[in-house]
Amino acid sequence: MTDSAAAEPFVSEPHEDEPQPASRYDDMAEGYARFWAPVIRPGAIRVLDLVAPDLEPAGTSAILDVGSGTGSLAIATLKRWPWHRVTGIDPSGGMLEVARDTADQELPEAVARRFRAEVASADRLPFDDATFDVAVSSFVLQLVKSRSAALREVRRVLKPGGVFAWVAWLRTDRAFEPDRIANELLDEAGFDPPEPDRRPGDLASVSSAAQGMRRAGYVDVRAHAGEVEHAWDADGYRAFYTEFDEASLFDDLEPGERDEIRAKLLERLGALRPEQLTLRLPVVYIVGRAPS
Hints:
Number of strands: 7
Largest sheet: 7 strands, mixed
Radius of gyration: 20 Å
Structural class: alpha/beta
Number of helices: 11
Helix content: 40-55%
Distance between the termini: 14 Å
Mean pLDDT: 90
Shape: globular
Oligomer: single chain
């Protein structure tokens, strides 16, 4: 294991031949960090248990965080193993700015300098072959244009025998009562409820996730199902829905109309039982190795 990914921390400009960062994610970076990152963080950091055998020993490993976003997984890695180095890539420079700031706030200065952030896409990584000892990723590979291309690209930049562990959403039709109530209120107010988020990239099954890794050239592949659980309270979900999930709609409302809908939403959410306010979504964890 080496310091091959060591560098001064920075957020790079996109490469000239790369697509520009996704402005939608740039614009939503702070809201994402405030409202959504805490929901998925517990599920994300469980990925680290899958790579712990490779990261516990002494010596410095070069770790790649694919789709680092606001930095939850990268920062958790350095909190757990502060002697390693983490390079986080993401197509959104705005997200990485938040990640860099959060690392500076939550990590000792010497450890924060072990986090490097670079604007890049998962399927076009700007690194030489066999650069990293370990790669991790959380809730990203359901979003990429070609998951198979991204898996192959991560394998390319891993050293022989290097491990890649990741988590992504499993497909589900599971309903969430607070969502239904919020959309019902918008309908009553004369607004079209948001289109259902079908997330076509969500994984079909645990077995298909494992098969995709094997087709991309990984060996010793293992996969298992899990669940992300988050207990909202009424006020917390209202803030999430009105200030992040549907913020653009609520920003455009007249103040009186906005206040009325917010008050009705809080009232109806307050009538729910705690279990109805608890979000539970299925996920799949996958780990495999680059061939030696």
